[in-house]
Amino acid sequence: MTDRRALVVRGGWDGHHPVETTELFLPFLEKSGFDVRVEESNEIYADAEVMAATDLIVQSVTMSEISKEAFAGLRSAVEAGTGLAGWHGGIADSYRANSDYLHLIGGQFATHPGRPPAERPGDETDNYLSYTVDMTELGREHEITAGISDFSLTTEQYWVLHDDLIDVLATTTHPVQPYHPWHRPVTSPAVWTRQWGAGRIFVVTPGHSVDVLEDPNVRTIVERGMLWASRAARTS
Asked: What region holds the ThuA-like domain (predicted)?
């Protein structure tokens, strides 16, 4: 039997496919020796006994809300050593009204620049751009991203507001376009880690849909990131 426990918490906006995307990684977690529990509500965070026994939280909850009690449980668990990992809006655009959650994560979705107005069909692909994920010097050496070269995607390109307490493993740059109001290129973190108390936090911004997460580079980064964040991985 395994003594590694993962808690998958999913919900929020359906446009990010929280069920389908998390199901993609359940076999990997189980193969990696985790006993996996799936919850459709973040209220599980308020259960101190469950949280104390959890080595890794994988969260996919875009927007939505979190109660005071649930957030306190989440933050306390991370500070005590529980890992927290996720992708795209499921972690970087959760609980917009909770400034303490934004502080915990270290980076928050601000926007995803769109295609030229004349090329927008009026659906979610309005914001699909071809862009590059560029490894930083740290990223070329870090165990999550080592051996992964810069790579390209066509999907939402997140513009992220962030602080200096994150360790950035990869970035993406938003170019100047005549139909956007900014006047110089803006570089945002695309993959980062964060130390919070005794816990580790891992975030990767690509992951709008299952096909993006199935990209070999993105999938490898997510899988390695979950293992890196897990408390069990650090103590076994």
From this structure: 5-229
Q: What is d(CA 59, CA 156) in angstroms, rounded to the nearest whole number?
A: 19
The amino acid at 113: P
- Residue pLDDT, tens place only, 60-109: 999 999 999 999 999 999 999 999 999 999 999 999 999 999 999 999 99
